[in-house]
Specification:
The complex is a heterodimer.
Chain A (H helix, E strand, L loop, with lengths): L14 H23 L6 H16 L3 H13 L1 H7 L1 H9 L1 E3 L1 H25 L4 H7 L6 H11 L3 H25 L5 H20 L4 H30 L2
Chain B lengths: L3 H21 L5 H16 L5 H12 L1 H4 L1 H5 L5 H6 L1 H26 L4 E2 L5
Helix pairs in contact in B: 1-2, 1-3
Classes of the chains: A mainly alpha, B mainly alpha.
Chain lengths: 240, 122
């Protein structure tokens, strides 16, 4: 694409405001598309990223310039992550039995997700940075970004992988678990939340209240377990 | 005023998480520690979160997608990386996601038969 064909320039003074309006507008557009298409592949975040990426190209704005405005939205990730405690507490209160099997399944899922994510990238010749960005991909995106940053991955790559991973879970969980005859709502909810966080959970939440509760706990718990596990496992994995 | 207090609580717990991380040299992200502290705060006191806090949390989480757009746009700086490493990235994403899904579901299926929840209020 020849950028000089489109001499769009944003005057420096309004760059932060432009970035904010662009981000909100692109996301709202993505939400509208999702409403119309009703397909998990039409994810508003992915749509917004593509629109903003193209716009930055056309207006010759650097990512750093864009971020001067977008950082106000980015900042809210912190309190939003803290707020994840609320649905988790709400769901935990409704759990009566099966706490230990749930913890076993959660820990195994976190461990396997981290190790296989890192391991498969390395086995296929990917760089350590890519492998470290893959490791937190099962986590809910705000935690995936934070963990990726703390272990030396590329946060934006982890964010995109977490979203696409969630979409994969949403479209594959029914056929996969049907084939294995796993029908219990608890197992389905827990697996959806652990492997696919919010987007994965959105597939099972309308199916059953038990699935919804277990998915809610899984999203928060997987974030916590992996955040604790990653600093211990990553130095060991890195030697390989 | 009803919005101010819950926002204060969330930021306060985030700050507590960041402070705890700095003090303990834990490599766990501050907001995640803040989330653990907030969950523990309600679980240990056996209290339900205040309605105003639930309201703000639901609102914030309803727009969660928007909040990671700015970080996600950073991917445009890494397009070359995606182009060179597309094979390990796509195989690992597919493989690891399916393995994680099946491991979690199978363990819960095998050992969690008695798992249930209280039905009232749900």
């Amino acid at each position: 694409m020849n950028g000089s064909l489109l001499p769009l320039t944003i005057s420096p003074g309004v760059v932060p405001l432009f970035a904010l309006v662009l981000t909100l507008g692109a996301y709202l557009f993505g939400v509208e598309v999702q409403k119309r298409v009703r397909n998990p592949l039409a994810n508003p975040v992915l749509i917004a990223i593509v629109i903003i990426g193209i716009t930055l190209r056309l207006t010759h704005l650097s990512y750093q310039d864009y971020f001067t405005g977008a950082q106000f939205i980015h900042f809210m990730l912190g309190p939003a992550t803290v707020a994840l405690a609320i649905p988790m507490v709400r769901a935990l209160e409704h759990m009566r039995r099966g706490f230990w099997p749930m913890m076993a399944a959660l820990c195994a899922g976190s461990f396997v997700g981290l190790i296989t994510g890192y391991g498969i990238v390395r086995l296929l010749g990917g760089s350590q940075t890519v492998a470290l960005s893959m490791a937190p991909k099962s986590l809910t995106t705000p935690i995936a970004i934070a963990v990726s940053q703390s272990i030396g991955g590329i946060p934006s790559l982890s964010a995109v992988l977490a979203i696409i991973g969630g979409i994969l879970v949403a479209v594959s969980i029914d056929p996969l678990l049907h084939r294995l005859k796993i029908r219990e709502p608890a197992a389905r909810g827990l697996a959806a939340g652990t492997a696919g966080s919010g987007i994965g959970a959105s597939r099972v939440i309308p199916q059953h209240t038990i699935s919804a509760a277990f998915a809610g706990v899984a999203i928060g718990a997987n974030g916590i377990i992996t955040a604790l596990l990653a600093p211990i496992l990553v130095p060991i994995l890195k030697r390989w | 005023m009803t919005m101010l207090k819950p926002i204060f609580i969330l930021l306060l717990f985030q700050l507590a998480g960041e402070t705890l991380r700095a003090a303990t040299h834990l490599k766990v992200p501050g907001p995640v520690l803040g989330m653990v502290l907030l969950a523990a705060w309600y679980i240990l006191r056996r209290r339900d979160p205040e309605p105003e806090l639930e309201h703000i949390a639901d609102g914030l989480l309803g727009w969660l997608g928007l909040l990671f757009v700015p970080a996600g746009v950073g991917i445009i700086a890494n397009l070359a990386l995606l182009r060179t490493a597309w094979l390990p990235i796509s195989v690992a994403l597919l493989g690891s996601t399916f393995i994680t899904l099946l491991t979690t579901a199978w363990i819960m299926h095998r050992f969690g038969h008695r798992a249930s929840i209280r039905h009232e209020g749900l």
